[in-house]
User: Fold this.
Amino acid sequence: MKVKRKIHIGTSGWSYKHWKGNFYPDNVKAAEYLTFYARYFPVSEINNSFYKLPAKEIVAKWVDTVPEGFLFCPKMSRYLSHLKKLRDPQEPLERFFNIFRPFQEYLGPVLIQLPANSRFKAEVAETFYEETDRYDDFRFALEVRHPSWFSEESIGLMKSHGITLVFSQADRLPYHEEITAKDIYLRFHGPTTLYSSSYSDDVLEDYAEKFAAWADDGHEVWAFFNNDIGGHAVANAMKLQERVDALTGVMIE
Assistant:
């Protein structure tokens, strides 16, 4: 019988020097962070691919570092998301997947994070989605930060192309909870102060119950904590995993 995880909880990257002392022991070197991280979490976003695409050799080293079943969710280059704002996507996507395609079996959804000033434009979005259709063996999750993306037309396009709308949990970011694909993807940026505030146990309990219900409905849930300052991401992710485990246990496929 094959065991398959339906709820994946981790943090938005692992290479944080300020976690030393509150997560990473003092005797753990930076080169050993991922190995240590993978003892506690089964998944991580790859945050630095947003700033600079890694070499294939680096990705191969990450894959060799983690145990079987560990998954990565790489973040699309900001060249496409922030500079091009999804326009002319063919070359940036080809460059991205030239690096990550060999490691497809180790990947969850590819994250695309848009800037707050990027408004929904149907023609741009549809052209981009059509280009992602060429990579039908990958899944895409889109984090938007302008409410125009929550329109009926925008949501309809996401659903028709199987693009997951990311639920961005933070008081300063627009939040719209609507399921657009089989994957459900959440990013927790900090409830009050971005990147440096902690979620209450009550909030985490509410999300644990949602995750269990979504998994029961056949969805695959991905949740990442980006409130890394002060180590809140690690503590919140562990607490949420604990609550999910209490509700669901291990799901068997």
